[in-house]
Amino acid sequence: MSERATETRWRSLQSSPRGERWSDPHKSVKTPRIPDIQRLRPDVVIVNTDENRRQTFERLQSVGLRVLVTQTDSLDQIEATWLQLGEATGTAGLANECCERIASARAYNREALRGIRSR
After folding, report:
1. How many helices and strands, by DSSP H and E, does the chain display?
2. CA distances from 25 to 13, 14, 48, 50, 71 (A)
3. Averaged over 30-55, what is the pLDDT?
4. Cβ pair 52, 96 in contact under 8 A
5. Sign of the CA dihedral 27, 30, 36, 37?
6. If DSSP codes are grouped into helix, strand and coil, which group holds residue 52?
7. DSSP codes, 67-114
8. Which residues pair with 48 in a beta bridge?
9. CA geometry: angle at 86 spanning 3 and 101, to 5°?
10. What pLDDT digit, counting tens, does each position of 103-113 carry?
11. Average predicted confidence (pLDDT) for the chain
């Protein structure tokens, strides 16, 4: 994995290209400067369905950038995103280890909170 893969970090889409709902483009607080992103020559640009608009995703793809869409609306999706990022960056083994630790911590917390009622 080249250094560029981790240097290009940016968020700005509201749902994935797989058909989920995209946000109102007027509510986005970030407008990425695509020419600046292109100049960085990233291996991959990571967008997230919580923050990014479909139009931004489409523009990035249309200029030939490899775009990875992540979705992190739940703890399960966060674990899946770790695996997805590991695959995209050539660190799948490390991502799997992280997911195992996350799953272990979640199981520990579920057990620790068993029987406690919320107020």
Report:
1. 5, 2
2. 9, 9, 14, 12, 18
3. 89
4. no
5. negative
6. strand
7. EEEE--SSHHHHHHHHHHHHHHHT-HHHHHHHHHHHHHHHHHHHHHHT
8. 70
9. 125
10. 999 999 999 99
11. 78
Instruction: Report the pLDDT value the prediction gives residue 119, as an integer from 0 to 100.
Output: 67
CA distance 94 to 6: 15
Report whether 99 contacts 91 (CB < 8 A): no
Per-residue pLDDT tens digits for 46-101: 999 888 888 889 999 999 999 999 988 888 898 899 999 999 999 999 999 999 99
More confident residue, 119 or 45: 45
- How many whole angstroms separate alpha carbon 41 and alpha carbon 21? 29
Look-up: residue for tokens 């994995």? 1
Q: Is the dihedral of CA 5, 8, 9, 14 positive or negative?
A: negative
CB atoms within 10 A of CB 16: 18
Contact between 49 and 20 under an 8 Å Cβ cutoff? The reply is yes
Q: What is the CA radius of gyration of the chain?
A: 17
